[in-house]
Amino acid sequence: MSTAHFKITNSTHVPVCYAVYEEPKANNNPSKHGVLTPGETKEWNSGSLLVGNYQVWALVVGDAKDHTEYTCVDGSNPIFPGEDVMKVYFEDGLPNWLGTLDKANMEAFSADDLKATLGEDMTTSICPTFYWNGMSTHTVKITGGPQIVQETETGLYRIGKPGEEIEATELLCYRAS
C-alpha cells in the first residue's frame, strides 16, 4: 500500500510562497508554509497533516523568500503588498534564484504595465477548499503568473510586458488531483 501524500507543485516561472490552512481558518497559523522555486514540489504524508478540509494560498515572490507576513494573516485572502513592492522583490531578489534582472527594462514599465504584470490578479491566488482524507494523494498546482525570459545579447533577465509574446497570466492555485 502506498503512502498518501498532500502535494503542492509550483508550475510557474517564478518563486511562490504558499500557506496550507486547515478549515475552518480559526487563526493566522497555517498548518504548513514556505516558498517553492519554479518546478519545485513540496509534499507531506498522512502523518504530517490531519484529515480535514484544506485551503492553499499562493503569492508570487520575486526574491524566493518565505514572506509569511503576507500569507499568515487573519482574513480571507493573502495580503497583496502592491506592485511597487513586487517590483523591488524582483529587482533585488532575482539573483537569489535565477540571475540578474534588466533593471532598465523594469524601469520602463508604465503603471498599467506593472498592474498587468505584477498586480494582485497576476500574483495571488487561493485554491478552493477541498477535503483530504489522508488515504489518497491530492496535488495542488500553481500556474501562471509573471513570465521571465533571458535576453541572449546581454544575458540579463526581463519580465514580459502585456502584448508581448511572453506576458503574465493570472496566477491560479487549484487542486489538480
Task: Tag the structure with descriptive keywords.
single chain, 177 residues, alpha+beta, four-stranded mixed β-sheet, four-stranded antiparallel β-sheet, 5 helices, 10 strands, 35% strand, elongated
Fold and architecture overview:
The chain is elongated. The protein is an alpha+beta fold and 177 residues long. The protein contains five helices and ten strands. Helices cover 18% and strands 35% of the residues. The longest helix is centred in the middle third of the chain and has 11 residues.
From the structure provided, what is the oligomeric state, counting identical versus distinct chains?
Answer: single chain
Query: How does the helix and strand content classify structurally?
Result: alpha+beta
- Estimate the global geometry from the Cα principal axes: elongated
How much helicity do the residues have?
10-25%
Biggest sheet: strand arrangement? 4-1-7-10
What is the H/E string?
EEEEEHHHHHEEEEE
**Strands, count:** 10
As residue ranges, the low-confidence spans are none
Biggest sheet layout: 4 strands, mixed
Radius of gyration: 17 Å
Tell me what portion of residues adopts beta-strand conformation: 35-45%
Intertermini distance: 19 Å
Counted by DSSP, the helix tally is: 5
